[in-house]
Amino acid sequence: MLPPDEPDGVTVMDPVHVGDGVTLENCSIGPNVTLAAGVTVRGSTIQNSKRSGIVIALGSKALISANTIRANGGDGISVGASQADLRDNVITGNSGCGISADSASQLSGSGNIAQANARGNACGNVPSGLIVAQPTPPPAGMVLIPAGEFQMGDSFKEGDSDERPVHTVNVSAFYMDKYEVTKDFWDEVANWAAEHGYDIWSGHVLGKGANHPVVYVSWYQAVKWLNARSEKEGLTPCYYTSSAQSEVYRRGNVDVRNDWVKWGGCGYRLPTEAEWEYAARGGVEGHRFPWSDTDEIQHSRANYYSSDRYSYDTSPTRGFHPTYARDPQPYTSPVGSFAPNGYGLYDMAGNVWEWVWDWYNEGYYTFSPGADPRGPASGSDRVLRGGGWDNYAIYCRVAFRSSTAPDDSRRNIGFRAVRPAGQ
Question: DSSP state, 322?
Fold first, then answer.
């Protein structure tokens, strides 16, 4: 039990019973909170419980206000035969209901956002008006990555110096492809693009199978394909050939600059490096990989090259993934072959490296903006994230940064798309 004088901003990592009259404010709490009488929980994050995030016990009375309650194994908020005032909470990605209420419960409040909860956003005796109108559903094949703050970089102090310092970044909400772009999807869009003024086509790149990620794709090709995907769907393209944003980027190798991008109100684009890492972490912090139940990696979780050189690589099988190491190379796996992370994203570790928007700068973390950073203004290499099927475990960490020239194309490089939320 937390004492009444527990300071603001605490992090609690064991199941907690909060006693009478206690206020928790600006805390990070996991994995489980049970509330007694007269308790207030305000401005906190409750996440990663194997059970429900907040349980309001029998006979309790609680105020739950302006919290983020996400990625818990049960309900976001479970209310027994008790009274609760729920206001302005964000309840997302829980394995049970967003808010679950006993028939004898008495709920009040407003302004709560509940979305992407597995068993529904409201279950049982939840009054109308408690949950605000739901946001626009994600486009087909994409998931919503909610706005939030996270610690970007290598908290384990085991990576290269370019992964530090760890720094706070705020990210606006966006949609992201669940899967890496497949060869089949590439072909569909590229064939359309070839007939509409683009210099890309289906044979431009390779893929081991229709449902495998596309590979041998350069940064330039990926960006043009994303513009074509936007135009094919009747959306405004994101990338242009100058700051005037009058000519859509369709041909050649153009080093598109930050102010040549229509960041708001456009269709598909590459994620920024910060967006990619925030999404890869799946709504939880302080972990090495996209999953949060362990900081180890095995072939049961990702397609990568296993070795005993890293203590956190505990796979019982070594070398290439035994299921997918079938000649000819590349030894990619069909997208979605492994469990998703907390946001519902697949293959954020291994399979193929993924292009992101940013130019690479080794020291960028020392001067990166704190809100929606878009990388340096210029450079020679673009950033890659996630690691590939032929890479060691260290490269599959969510904090690892790699880079190569934007015209480079290799057997282990692919990409996925994002879109502004609500578009």
Answer: T
Q: Are 355 and 375 in contact (CB under 8 A)?
A: no
Q: Which residue has the tokens 């967006």?
A: 275
Lowest mean pLDDT across 1-10, 153-162, 327-336, 357-366: 1-10
Task: Quote the crossing angle between the two packed helices 183-194 and 219-232, to the nearest 10°.
Answer: 70
Angle at 163 between CA 162 and CA 164, to 5 degrees: 90
List the one residue out of 114, 418, 135 whose CA is nearest residue 278: 418
Q: Would you say the pTM of this structure is higher than 0.70?
A: yes
Give residue for tokens 């939320």: 421
Angle in degrees, CA 128, 89, 6, rounded to 5: 135
Sheet-wide strand order for 382-385: 402-404, 382-385, 353-359, 413-414
DSSP state at residue 409: -
**DSSP secondary structure letter of residue 9:** T
Distance, in Å, from the CA atom of 220 to the CA atom of 204, rounded to the nearest integer, reads 12
Residues in the chain: 423
- pLDDT tens for 55-102 read 887 777 888 888 888 888 889 999 988 889 998 888 988 888 999 999
| CA atoms of 45 and 30, how far apart (whole Å) | 8
Q: Can you spell out the DSSP letters for 77-132? A: EEE-SSEEEEES-EEES-SS-SEEE-TT-EEEEE-BEEES-TT-SEEES--TTSBP
Beta bridge partners of 113: 90
Q: Using CA atoms, how far apart are residues 31 and 13, in angstroms rounded to an integer?
A: 6
Q: Are strands 353-359 and 11-12 parallel, antiparallel or unpaired?
A: unpaired
* Residues 325-347: b if buried by 16+ CB within 10 A, e if exposed: eeeeebbbbbbebbebbbbbbbb
70 beta partners: 47, 92
SS3 letters across 367-399: CCCCECCCCCCCCCCEEEECCCCCCCHHHHCCC
Q: Answer whether 146's CB lies under 8 Å from 344's CB.
A: no
* Tokens linked to 174: 């966006």
Bridge partners (DSSP) of residue 61 are: 37, 83
256: which residues sit within 8 A by CB, 6+ positions away? 223, 239, 240, 241, 249
380 in Cβ contact with 330 (< 8 Å): no
